[in-house]
């Protein structure tokens, strides 16, 4: 099916199947009708993270209410790489950038943590969720990352799942090169510390964790958001997106 590349693309929560109506939220309706100037009969591409990507047609285009008729599936759902990003919150604009780009790079789970040297003690969870949705819509991704509540690093480590390896960026230079540690058959999470680095007790806890491994990105000192994105790109290159599979 040939799809108009200019068609708007939206994330919806409805189940998607042929000859089904999808009712957009007030904000989505405003965006389509007022911002994008879409009208009845125009095409809209939608996805929900479960049923793949679908072509729809606008059947009602009111100011605050818009209805789409689901026509045909464009892409089936796939199993995406299950990579988590654990990170210390940073200042607002840089955090927005980090979440947006991490979504584009295919992260499955975003876990903010409070560490001893974290400068930012709060996050706007709703804002971060909105950033992930907007980024997924723009990059043609078929899923939305899960944004977890803010948690203390020591609590997270005490309850870390045994079936997931934690690759933490070790600024002391004692870590292994990240590229050499990527294994497509292993569930991984990448931990990026705050600008001030991990405290000695935190490094001790990380080194004591049986399924945690210190890794390095090289000799340069990187800002937190840069390090996170470099690490994700490296992980995806060596063990991520090349392994995706269709599931529906």
Which characteristics define this entry?
elongated, Alpha/beta knot, alpha/beta, single chain, 15 strands, 248 residues, 2 domains, eight-stranded parallel β-sheet, Ribosomal Protein L25, Chain P
Quick one: CATH class of the largest domain? Alpha Beta
CATH homology-level superfamily of the largest domain? SPOUT methyltransferase, trefoil knot domain
Count of the separate structural domains:
2
Series of secondary-structure elements, N-terminal to C-terminal? EEHEEEEEHEHEEHEEHEHEHE
Q: Note the overall shape.
A: elongated
Q: What is the chains' assembly state? A: single chain
CATH architecture of the largest domain: 3-Layer(aba) Sandwich
Fold-level CATH name of the largest domain:
Alpha/beta knot
- Over the alpha carbons, how many angstroms does the gyration radius reach? 20 Å
Separation of the first and last Cα atoms: 18 Å
- The poorly predicted ranges are none
The total strand number stands at: 15
Report the major sheet. Answer: 8 strands, parallel
Portion in helices: 25-40%
Which percent band covers the strand fraction? 25-35%
Helix and strand content put the structural class at alpha/beta
